[in-house]
Amino acid sequence: MSICLVVLQGPSASGKSTIQSRLGLPRIVTWTSRSPREGESDGVDYHFKSRSEMERLYELGQMLEMTEYHGNLYGTPLKLIEETVRDSEMKSMILDGAGSRKVKAMFRDNVLLIGIKASKEDCEKRLSLRGHGFEEIRTRLSSFDREIAELSHCDVILNNTDDNKGKIDMLTDFIREGLGK
Ligand SMILES: Nc1ncnc2c1ncn2[C@@H]1O[C@H](COP(=O)(O)OP(=O)(O)OP(=O)(O)O)[C@@H](O)[C@H]1O
Ligand SMILES: Nc1nc2c(ncn2[C@@H]2O[C@H](COP(=O)(O)O)[C@@H](O)[C@H]2O)c(=O)[nH]1
């Protein structure tokens, strides 16, 4: 079995991007209709697109998957996935539960699904430190329980609570080495 894609999935602020960076794999940069956060740039964190552009690509059948998360669209153009298959270079990406199920159906044993969880209290604190307002934090955490339940199809789940950081760093390095990176 050879893994060509690593997917990270979990609730907002569970630590997906942090763990993705530590894994050090080239990232598949997906599309979103949400506005960039401070410090985010186009083509690096996401391809920031208009809602209509994303809907058009979806209608043309050129999106592998697209999801609506708290009022914004997020999606993976098929061509990004085709490039991954063609390059045969292992990559990583961040998806929600619906997206990761689609990718799992496509890649089967060639995808590693890593679920990231943390307590709701830790996620709330991290979102607040990241500068989100009360309403945005409430909205993002309103799907917390469902997003934790959706981790059940993951191959492995990392418990990335604040007091577990040392162990998570070690486990992430362990996974990276296991992937031959
Ligand atoms: N184990 C940890 N202990 C303390 N802080 C952490 C830990 N892991 C991540 N963080 C911090 O929590 C914040 C959110 O992390 P990150 O952006 O990786 O989450 P995410 O799941 O990608 O979030 P989102 O889906 O909302 O974009 C960051 O400021 C990060 O530095
Ligand atoms: N199905 C997809 N989900 C995606 C994709 N890119 C990101 N995501 C998920 O969206 C939420 C919110 O992201 P944020 O950057 O606004 O915090 C995040 O939890 C991801 O799981 C995608 O291309 N498809």
UniProtKB/TrEMBL annotation:
Enzyme superclass (EC): transferase
Source superkingdom: Bacteria
E.C. number(s) listed in UniProt: 2.7.4.8
Gene3D superfamilies xref list: P-loop containing nucleotide triphosphate hydrolases
Catalytically driven reaction(s): GMP + ATP = GDP + ADP
A Pfam family assignment: Guanylate_kin
UniProt-recorded Gene Ontology molecular function terms: GMP kinase activity
Keywords of the record: Kinase, Transferase
SMART domains: GuKc (SM00072)
Record-level GO cellular component terms: cytosol
Boundaries of every Guanylate kinase-like domain copy: 3-176
Function: Essential for recycling GMP and indirectly, cGMP.
Family statement drawn from the similarity comment of this UniProt entry: Belongs to the guanylate kinase family.
Name assigned to this protein: Guanylate kinase
Organism: Cohnella terricola
